[in-house]
């Protein structure tokens, strides 16, 4: 078993295998949008991928049950569509703490294209929702996105290192205001995208309703919450 930054222990061999599969799948997704091989080759690859899908679906977790590797309080989410090491869809963006917030570098491939050569605008929204949400979590202020605004100053080029940042600018009660940017790694102070969001910790009754059926891999109720929340799994134990 291994741990990361105070999170729940996890199976290191399983984590390594999930990350390896995620890496292989991301390579497949990227190759699938760049390839120029003939139709017959595409059909052969499609058949091979379906065979692989059959092996993965031989055992699946029930709806509502978190993956065994996840820790909802520390926000270790291996299949998260932005940061998850096991996600075929995620770039993945690895965020780390910096003074006052979070930061991560990434290069978006062709699978995320909107206008030719540039990042899809919706992808910027997805990424910034994650970055700003991570900033609230690092500050112990988990909430759900209530509002997300983006200003697209310049297009984000593909296959180019960019840096994403987020920081909490106001916090009080259940509400946090968070701001962030996407910029070229070589010009981090000139934002291409500016984002601002309001995250709100849902009222207790809403939280109970939304996450009533969420369990961890052992079947224990495991709703997302702020780390200081007395109802958080492990709190007071
Ligand atoms: C829970 C809540 C957001 C708020 O409901 P309640 O608890 O009933 O809140 P209540 O009405 O009591 O207001 C409390 C305070 O909040 C303020 N405020 C409220 N709204 C707004 C606003 N729009 N704009 C500005 N402020 C607003 C309001 O004025 C008040 O402020 P005050 O105290 O007077 O100063 C509810 O609307 C909801 O469920 N929305 C859907 C959320 C959803 O699905 N999100 C997407 C999925 S999450 C996601 O993706 C993130 C993620 C990423 C990565 C990984 C994981 C997660």
UniProtKB/TrEMBL annotation:
Pfam families: 4HBT. InterPro entries: HotDog_dom_sf, PTE-AB_protein, Thioestr_dom. Residues 117-182 form the Thioesterase domain. It comes from the Bacteria. GO terms for molecular function: hydrolase activity. PANTHER family: UPF0644 PROTEIN PB2B4.06. This is PaaI family thioesterase. It comes from Geodermatophilus arenarius. The lineage of its organism: Bacteria, Bacillati, Actinomycetota, Actinomycetes, Geodermatophilales.
């Amino acid at each position: 078993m291994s741990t990361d930054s105070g999170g729940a222990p996890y199976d290191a061999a399983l984590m390594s295998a999930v990350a390896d599969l995620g890496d292989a799948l991301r390579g497949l997704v990227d190759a699938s949008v760049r390839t120029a091989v003939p139709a017959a080759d595409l059909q052969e690859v499609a058949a091979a991928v379906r065979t692989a899908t059959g092996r993965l679906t031989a055992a699946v977790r029930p709806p509502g049950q978190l993956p065994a590797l996840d820790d909802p309080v520390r926000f270790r989410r291996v299949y998260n569509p932005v940061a998850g090491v096991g996600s075929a869809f995620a770039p993945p963006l690895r965020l780390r703490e910096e003074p006052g917030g979070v930061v991560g570098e990434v290069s978006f491939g062709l699978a995320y294209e909107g206008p030719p050569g540039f990042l899809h605008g919706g992808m910027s929204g997805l990424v910034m929702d994650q970055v700003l949400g991570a900033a609230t979590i690092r500050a112990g202020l988990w909430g759900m996105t209530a509002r997300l605004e983006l200003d697209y100053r310049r297009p984000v080029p593909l296959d180019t290192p960019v840096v994403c940042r987020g920081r909490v600018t106001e916090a009080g009660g259940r509400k946090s205001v968070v701001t962030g940017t996407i910029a070229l790694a070589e010009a981090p102070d000139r934002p291409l995208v500016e984002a601002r969001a309001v995250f709100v910790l849902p009222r207790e009754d809403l939280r109970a309703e939304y996450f009533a059926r969420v369990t961890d891999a052992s079947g224990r109720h495991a709703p997302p919450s702020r780390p200081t929340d007395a109802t958080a799994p492990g709190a007071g134990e």
